[in-house]
Specification:
Layout: E1 3-9, H1 15-23, E2 27-33, E3 39-40, E4 45-46, H2 50-57, E5 61-63, H3 70-77, E6 83-87, H4 95-98, E7 105-109, H5 121-127, E8 132-139, E9 149-156, H6 163-186, H7 219-228, E10 235-239, E11 242-253, E12 266-268, E13 273-276, E14 279-282, E15 285-289, E16 292-301, E17 307-308, H8 309-315
Parallel strand pairs: 1-2, 1-6, 2-5, 6-7
Antiparallel strand pairs: 3-4, 7-8, 8-9, 10-11, 11-16, 12-15, 13-14, 15-16, 16-17
């Protein structure tokens, strides 16, 4: 007999896990509960979120409640669900809803709780310069991301990981481990561990302007910001009164010959090299930062294509020596 599951989620992060659950014969995904459709973009078109696409491709009913009310709870109860799985859902789930699930609702959270509770754990891990993160499976409770831990799967954060690559890695961890975790829950084989509130940290929602680069910071902090905001909102500065997005770079100690330049000045490489992917690589341009320099690797003028710094300099001969703001 198959286990009935209700899946709560929106956005891209839960797609791999939902897709994997659909392939396992032990489960029957009765309903996907996701966010109401909204108009997006300049043309204000209604766009299906990625969870919708997975559900439709697997003939799963989609419900888009504006709020969780009594009628909704009764409807979910009619599917006789054994367990719920929640990943990146925008809905607050009341106790009355949780009670109808014999094995509760399990939240899949992309951090090693109690660290980085809240809406932006992946970005915050990168901003903080963390070297390790992971997936936490926990039981849903009233408090934000504070329920008992069921299982955790840590992974290393590489120096060149950004929001896009780290999100992809964590999605795969979630998808690869969800079956094992659910089976152990259903077979009562897991020990639930209470979170240590003294170690809890919280994240916040980011805004578009969080992507603006502050060149008065160290190159390490700037690099962490660029990695954390890759894809959205993207890290940007101003060059010749145009928005210039910086997509990737590396950090380097401040060359003594460059101490005389003001913060934000674009410096020539001067035949210097740095190590990238264990190879000695030429520096084409760096930016003077606080007690350090930031080496630009990939960048993009607004409404133009992303390019390597070498190609950008070839097309912008006045780049070296200018000041970014």
């Amino acid at each position: 007999m198959k286990t009935n599951i209700i899946f709560f989620g929106a956005g891209t992060f839960g797609t791999e896990t939902l897709s994997n659950l659909c392939k396992i014969n032990d489960y029957s995904i009765k309903v996907v509960v996701t966010a109401p459709l909204k108009k997006q973009g300049r043309n204000r078109k209604i766009v299906n979120n990625p969870i919708d696409i997975i559900a439709k491709n697997n003939d799963i009913q989609i419900i888009r409640p504006d709020k969780i009310d009594t009628a909704f709870i009764k409807k979910i109860a009619s599917y006789n669900p054994a367990i719920g799985v929640l990943i990146n859902s925008s809905h607050f789930l009341p106790e009355e809803l949780i009670k109808i699930f014999p094995n509760k609702i399990i939240n899949v959270h992309p951090s090693l709780l109690p660290k980085h509770r809240g809406p932006s754990p992946i970005q915050t891990a990168l901003l903080d310069g963390d070297h390790v993160t992971g997936i936490s499976f926990m039981e849903i409770t009233k408090a934000l991301d504070a329920g008992p831990i069921i299982a955790q799967y840590p992974i290393n954060i590489d120096n060149k990981d950004n929001l896009i690559t780290l999100t992809n890695k964590l999605q795969l961890v979630s998808a690869d481990t969800i079956h094992n975790v659910l089976q152990k829950i259903l077979n009562k084989e897991l020990f639930y561990e209470k979170q240590n509130e003294d170690l809890a940290t919280y994240t916040r929602k980011f805004q578009k302007d969080d992507g603006r680069i502050n060149w008065n910071q160290t190159s390490q902090i700037i690099n962490n910001n660029i990695r954390a905001f890759a894809g959205w909102p993207n890290s940007f500065t101003t060059f010749n009164e145009q928005r210039l997005m910086i997509h990737a770079g590396s950090i380097i100690d401040l060359d003594p010959d460059n101490k005389k330049y003001k913060i934000g000045t674009i410096l020539a490489g001067n035949n210097r090299t740095y190590y990238y992917n264990n190879n000695s690589t030429k520096i084409y341009a760096s930016i003077r930062c606080k007690n350090s320099e930031f080496i630009i690797e990939f960048l993009q003028i607004a409404n133009k294509e992303r390019v390597h710094i070498k190609d950008f300099i070839n097309g912008n001969k006045d780049f070296i020596g200018k000041k970014l703001i």
